[in-house]
Write a structure and sequence with these properties.
The chain has helices spanning 2-22, 29-49, 55-76, 84-103. It has 109 residues and is mainly alpha-helical. The protein has one domain (2-103). The termini are close together.
């Protein structure tokens, strides 16, 4: 169940971060509300994930997947293109998350 909490927490953080640009420095009400509520829910759910997933592992997965998903959101929604070094770095991040999840004995499998 903690992995579900972590996954939804990451999704909420990605939504909040992606909407941050649309909030225009918190001058637009609806995007600003989405940002604040998204981050609040994200941290709340992340705290439940930490009941059985070690902090360092959970945060590495959170940060890694967050970077990948926010980059993809920037590409799709904001038309922000990624160059080869950025794509290569994202591939390394994905590889790192997969290695942690599949091979680490500290992930609380």
């Amino acid at each position: 169940m903690q992995w579900i909490f972590l996954g939804v927490a990451i999704l909420m953080e990605v939504i909040a971060t992606s909407t941050l640009k649309a909030s225009n420095n918190f001058t637009r009400l609806i995007p600003s509300i989405i940002v604040v509520c998204g981050y609040a829910l994200s941290f709340y759910l992340f705290s439940f994930a930490l009941k059985s997933i070690p902090l360092g592992i959970a945060y590495a997965i959170w940060a890694g997947l967050g970077i990948v998903l926010v980059s993809f959101t920037g590409l799709v929604i904001y038309k922000q293109h990624l160059d080869f070094p950025a794509l290569l770095g994202i591939a390394f991040i994905i590889t790192g998350v997969v290695v942690i999840r599949l091979f680490s004995n500290t992930t609380g499998k």
